[in-house]
Structure to design on (348 residues):
């Protein structure tokens, strides 16, 4: 089977923002949470949060009738909820997906600066040219892409459904053009043996997990199960007991009998892991190798831009809300909705 990887679209270090935040005091945070809850109710808004954002935002989403979920469930929840105003706490592709699926709703984000290295590493013009060179292939793109890239695709997938969808396409004899995550693409290719031509993007968080240091850590914790998100390098995935989306990782932690887990994904997920499994121990997979090269803290800088402070400002200040509304060009949105609908339909 063909596996071909093209020019490298990983981000240079200077393209990744440094996010410094000042954490309000306990009593300030308590007061903010109360005001945010009241405003969400008063303005009939629903908060849809990803597992990687600040734990207090996750709790607020749950307490106020919103949801905290993986990227697939966020899309479904936003589409199906009766509220006409959504606040998406996550990264921009998640806000855009909500808007594409429900163009009649108003979708806001605490900050529109919350990007994703996979989205940034797949410029639509270059991707369109790439597709043009391979007109015989079915275009499958990861949800972590812009609306324009989705509009160029046949299928959108998330890590929750990519394996099943690619297996079904392979069974139909289709050859695939995959973008943007090369690690997830390689993993799916290895699992399905599908003919996949891979774009060469990467997640700046997951790419930092180090296989050798992980093997050493496993010797220290021989009874720990290893839970890995498939955006990680192949050598890290190869050691895993569970490979899957954020919700698959949470399920694995709940269902496996182990008392200790090593987790290779963004550290925001530890909030749910610890809350749901108070008697289990969770350890971060190492991002530092033997050399002094570590630039990661297993924490997505764009997810970290979602804070209580900017969520509260969004709710209290009309002009900020005006600036932070997610807009998608209607023609692009209409085209991008086709592969998204296909994904959600496939999952039913
Ligand atoms: P999930 O679809 O597993 O929630 O992952 C989204 C993501 O951005 C992972 O880095
Ligand atoms: Fe994108 Fe990686 Fe952040 Fe997920 S963790 S939003 S893939 S940069």
């Amino acid at each position: 089977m063909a596996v071909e990887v093209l020019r490298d679209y990983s981000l240079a270090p200077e393209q990744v923002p440094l996010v410094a935040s000042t954490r309000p005091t306990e009593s300030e945070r308590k007061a903010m949470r109360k005001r945010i809850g009241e405003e969400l109710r008063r303005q009939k808004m629903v908060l849809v949060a990803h597992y990687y954002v600040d734990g207090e935002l996750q709790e607020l989403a749950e307490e106020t009738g919103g949801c905290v979920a993986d990227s697939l469930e966020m899309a479904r929840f936003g589409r199906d909820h009766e509220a006409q105003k959504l606040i998406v706490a996550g990264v921009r592709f998640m806000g855009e997906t909500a808007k594409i699926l429900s163009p009649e709703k108003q979708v806001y984000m605490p900050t529109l600066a919350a990007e994703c290295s996979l989205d940034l590493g797949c410029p639509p013009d270059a991707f369109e040219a790439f597709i043009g060179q391979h007109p015989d292939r079915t275009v499958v793109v990861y949800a972590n892409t812009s609306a324009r890239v989705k509009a160029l695709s046949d299928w959108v997938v998330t890590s929750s459904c990519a394996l099943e969808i690619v297996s079904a396409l392979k069974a139909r004899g289709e050859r695939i053009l995959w973008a943007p995550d090369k690690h997830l693409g390689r993993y799916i290719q290895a699992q399905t043996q599908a003919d996949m031509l891979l774009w060469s993007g990467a997640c700046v968080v997951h790419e930092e997990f180090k296989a050798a240091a992980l093997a050493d850590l496993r010797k220290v914790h021989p009874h720990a199960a290893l839970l890995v998100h498939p955006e990680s390098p192949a050598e890290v995935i190869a050691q895993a007991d569970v490979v899957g989306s954020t919700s698959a990782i949470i399920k694995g932690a709940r269902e496996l009998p182990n008392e200790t887990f090593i987790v290779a994904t963004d550290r925001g997920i530890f909030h749910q892991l610890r809350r749901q499994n108070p008697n289990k121990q969770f350890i971060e997979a190492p991002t530092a190798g033997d050399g002094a090269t570590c630039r990661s803290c297993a924490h997505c800088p764009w997810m970290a831009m979602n804070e209580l402070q900017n969520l509260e400002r969004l709710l209290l200040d009309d002009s900020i809300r005006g600036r932070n509304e997610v807009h998608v060009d209607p023609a692009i949105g209409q085209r991008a909705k086709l592969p998204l609908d296909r994904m959600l339909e496939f999952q039913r």
